[in-house]
Design a protein that fits this description.
With 264 residues, this protein is of the alpha+beta class. The chain contains five helices and twelve strands. It has helices at 3-13, 31-40, 82-101, 175-195, 197-206, and strands at residues 22-28, 48-54, 71-78, 108-110, 114-117, 120-132, 135-146, 215-220, 223-232, 238-241, 247-250, 254-259. Strand 6 and strand 7 (135-146) form a beta hairpin. The termini are far apart. The model has no long low-confidence stretch (mean pLDDT 94). The chain binds biotin. The site of biotin has 20 residues, from helix 2, strand 3, strand 6 and strand 7.
Length: 264
């Protein structure tokens, strides 16, 4: 059985989502680019694309996602209703954190959905939505997990900020097994988005990096905002308090911590 068929079967046997179509390539420019082509021609929900490596992996905010062999590069097509689409990136983060926990690695979530382990980046998620008159039509959810990456294959400037399941002493480092675990947990949290979205928010808070009360910078296309990290609200927005005491709700941006609050 090839790897794509084995993934479909593994999900069926663990009661996970049924994957109507899976492609597993040795190399792609980007699994999300391939998935978006299929989405535009009407591919069904839970179509999944995987690659052993990507030559043009994409990260959030126009960044590159280094994609040498030894990583999981997975994109999955979802067609959430508008309400669910808003919280989908958080649900995906929770799913990935739970999946890696199954391999003995404690992942923590940095808003909106970076998965860190020992303070270093273990996984990233890129949710790209296409909308029409009726709202969100589909979301290409791209998930990259550093499974058995050789840090030597990463650019030098990334080596200190990135980790992998292997480096964290995971109990398994087979990208197919990690894909199965991620998709199974994603199925659970995708259902929760429809049935009880606040459970998703609560699960995200439970797994968040413990930075509440710390001073952070949030970088976005609008610039950098500095403030104290207060909360994740029920709509999935980050709430920070600016130095003058004013609070701001942020719906996008890259968070970095400046220093720990006294006593935390
Ligand atoms: C981030 O910047 O943290 C998000 C990284 C998302 C990377 C994944 S790998 C699979 C999919 N294909 C891509 O080109 N990007 C996403």
């Amino acid at each position: 059985m090839d790897r794509a068929a084995a993934l479909v079967e593994a999900l069926v046997s663990r009661g996970g989502p049924q994957l109507p179509k899976v492609e597993w390539h040795e190399e792609l420019v980007s699994t999300s680019d391939r998935l978006k082509e299929l989405a535009r021609s009407g591919a069904p929900e839970w179509t999944a694309i995987l690659a052993d490596r990507q030559s043009g992996g994409r990260g959030r905010d126009g960044r590159t996602w280094q994609s040498p062999p030894g990583g999981l590069y997975l994109s999955v097509l979802l067609r959430p209703s508008g309400e669910c689409a808003r919280l989908l990136p958080l649900a995906a983060g929770v799913a990935v954190a739970e999946a890696v926990a199954g391999f003995g690695v404690a992942g923590e979530l940095k808003w909106p959905n970076d998965v860190l382990a020992s303070g270093r980046k273990l996984a990233g998620i890129l949710a790209e939505a296409s909308s029409g008159g009726a709202g969100v039509e589909w979301v290409a959810l791209g998930i990259g997990v550093n499974v058995a990456l050789d840090p030597e294959r990463l650019p030098e400037e990334l080596r200190g900020s990135v980790t992998s399941l292997q480096a964290q002493g995971a109990t398994g480092t087979d990208p197919g097994a990690v894909a199965g675990a991620v998709l199974a947990r994603l199925g659970v949290w995708y259902d929760a988005l429809r049935e009880a979205p606040l459970r998703v928010v609560a699960a995200w808070r439970e797994r968040a990096v413990p930075w509440w009360g710390s001073l952070v910078d949030v970088r976005s296309s609008a610039g950098v905002l500095r403030g104290r990290l207060l909360a994740l609200d029920d709509d999935g927005a980050l709430v920070i308090e600016l130095s003058g005491g004013e609070t701001r709700r942020l719906v996008s941006g890259e968070v970095s911590r400046l220093r720990q609050a006294a006593g935390s």
